[in-house]
Amino acid sequence: MDLKQIALFAWLPFLAADLGGLFGGYLSPFLMKRLRVPLIWSRIAGVVLGALMMLGPACIGLIASPYEAIALFYVGGFAHQMISALVNTLAADVFDPGEVGTIAGFAGMSAWIGGLGFSLMVGALADKIGYTPLFGTLGAFDIIGATLLILLMRGVSRDARPREADAASNAAA
């Protein structure tokens, strides 16, 4: 496959990422309405679905066809953006309105530092161990992240936050 043929399909993962962001936004309301899943857990279910979908791209190093690799990158773009949309929305569901901006800032800073560090690490390791273990590691990170999300969010519900009216009445007492 030459560069021209790759270019015909290389834009598809970016389209998939856009579609994943849209799908992530529609998934929670669908789960809440059709399956009666609570708000927080509808978001978590979407993250888990995205993490499971990321197992496909984790296998990119094991296939020989460039078309299959592009298809797995497509799945990866879709799943990654779906996870991103749901995690960012989950922060607004869990934290008080005055804390959401701070949380989003810390999340963005952490993502930037992690992206920079991982890019440097991939560049250094790809020559030594190849890309296959690196793609596998990326898939494992998504599963680990979804598992941690489930463990950390056990017992948290939207109603677990103190309401502003309750907080004001407690302060007056």
Describe this structure in words.
This protein has 173 residues and is mostly helical. The chain is globular and about 50 Å long.
Task: Give descriptors for this structure.
mainly alpha; 173 residues; Growth Hormone, Chain: A
Topology:
Elements: H1 3-9, H2 12-35, H3 39-53, H4 66-94, H5 97-129, H6 132-153, H7 164-172
Helix pairs in contact: 2-3, 2-4, 3-4, 3-6
What's the gist of this structure?
With 173 residues, this protein is an all-alpha fold. It is built from 7 helices and no strands. 23% of the residues are buried.
Q: Describe the biggest sheet?
A: none
Radius of gyration: 19 Å
Give the ordered list of helices and strands: HHHHHHH
Low-confidence stretches are none
CATH superfamily: MFS general substrate transporter like domains
Can you count the helices? 7
How many separate structural domains?
1
Shape: globular
